[in-house]
Amino acid sequence: MKLIPPNILLLLVTVFSFGQEDWTLKKNGDSIKVFTRETNDLKLKEYKAITYVDTFKENVLSVILDAKNIKDWNYKTSESYLIKKEGDSIHHVYMYNDMPWPVSNRDFISKLTVKYPDEHSIKVLIEPGDSSLVPEKENVIRMKTFEGYWLIEEKNDLIKITQQLYGNPEGNLPSFFINTAIVSAPFNTFLKLREVLSK
């Protein structure tokens, strides 16, 4: 059996440790927790939001994929619609976000891919879609760098909903503004999402 040289072993441990860095709880209220952690881009952080809902996992999936109504619960989103589907598992969705003055509004195209890891969970991968599907608008910044997922899990008699996301909002925004928004935005999104799911 070959031994790993000490310097290579140290490098592997360092890389693994950075990739698995612990999350920091930033907000905890109304049965919603929002965590953040550092990323390879030291100016921007990644967030993870978690809540529990008394519903069915298929109901949560239906709401997440209901593109025309995402605007009703996703924070700062004023327009949303389905661009196209590829079978039942891939959805290309357009979203437009209103930002507070003097920040420019943003829009983006998401490719949502539905996976079924096991019988008790559903995962929806979030990645950039084909930006050419919708022409860019004047004075609106098109976001093209983001990745993450929704995870819907059966936990005892409740459904655990997790959203983990990293995104670069582009443009000249101070990192403190972005890193504040990545706590308030998912928290408010989950508040509205729970309202929709409780109806």
Question: Mind explaining what this structure looks like?
Answer:
With 199 residues, this protein is α+β, with helices and mostly antiparallel strands. It has one domain (22-197): 2-Layer Sandwich (Alpha-D-Glucose-1,6-Bisphosphate, Chain A, domain 4). It is built from three helices and ten strands; from the N terminus they run H-E-E-E-H-E-E-E-E-E-E-E-H. Strands 1, 2, 3, 4, 5, 6, 7, 8, 9 and 10 form a ten-stranded mixed β-sheet that branches. The longest helix has 23 residues, at 175-197. It starts with 5 loop residues before the first helix and ends with a helix.
What's the short version?
The protein is α+β, with helices and mostly antiparallel strands.
Task: Report the C-alpha radius of gyration, rounded.
Answer: 18 Å
The third-level CATH topology is Alpha-D-Glucose-1,6-Bisphosphate, Chain A, domain 4
CATH homologous superfamily assignment: START domain
The total strand number stands at: 10
The global form is globular
Bin the helical content: 10-25%
Low-confidence segments: 1-20
Briefly note the structural class of the backbone.
alpha+beta
Mean pLDDT: 87
Span between termini = 60 Å
Approximate strand percentage:
35-45%
Number of helices: 3
Q: In the CATH classification, which architecture applies?
A: 2-Layer Sandwich
Order of helices and strands: HEEEHEEEEEEEH
Number of domains: 1
CATH class: Alpha Beta
Largest sheet, described in full?
10 strands, mixed
